[in-house]
Amino acid sequence: MAQLQWNVPSIGGRAYRVGLYHGEGSGHLLLYVNNKITLIDFGVQDSKDYSFFLEEELFELKITKTGTSYNYALVHNEELDTPFNKQRRSQQRFNRLSQWVGGVLLLLLLSLVVVVVRKSSSQQEQAITQLAAGKGIATSGRVHKVDQRWYIQFVADHAAVRELLPATDTIHPLGFPLEDGDDLPLRYQPEDPSIVRIQWTALSPTQLQRYGERTLRRHLALNPGLSPRQAACQLAIAYEDRGLAGWALFYHQDGAYNDSLNRSSYLRYIRDPEVAERLRNCL
After folding, report:
1. How much is the pTM?
2. Share of the chain above pLDDT 90, in %
3. Nearest 10 degrees: CA dihedral of 213, 218, 221, 225?
4. In the chain, N or C terminus with fewer CB closer than 10 Å?
């Protein structure tokens, strides 16, 4: 004997438990709702449908015979014009409208965000261009590294400011990397101190000395046969010839920072006959 039970969600504030017994041999069928018999039929030995109401909602019991077995399904008729179906269709229309309105509002919001971001980015680029042209307030700041990010700290309008350095300002244009404590010249917008530009062409004597010491250490490490005095002499000649770019040649003598700062450019410089003669005089 087949025994099935369905739990029908709340309708009009009530929930229903619908069950059936079907003798597959005799075909006798009993349908009950909340332990109250709703339908009895005899000799049901083929596919058959039954309809009944729960409150004002129409349900259909579908019995389908396949070979010697039966399949049972309890279906809520959602097409009939009942109060529950009216409410459901009204809610569906409301949901579709809400989704449409929400989609339109989201599209408008995204468009507004794009406009604001583009405008902000354009204004920031314009402000940085103005700083590069010498506008804004000039000062100096000290850099430090936190969680793989470089920050620069300076004083603006008598208040300490700490700003994240953009990726383009985390290395000197000539390839000298930053180190904690580097003192760098900068310009910032007085209206918005977060807009900062490093003035690489206006390095302080202290920072130039730092770059010189780093280059000297690197030159000695790559040329252990040189004495500190010889290496310092060679760097002095390079600085006299090309300024900081001369030190950069020695700093990148074993690498390939770019097309003009690499192993080949370093060798071309030190093998220049005039330069080579001066370098040989370093004792």
Report:
1. 0.56
2. 54
3. -80
4. C
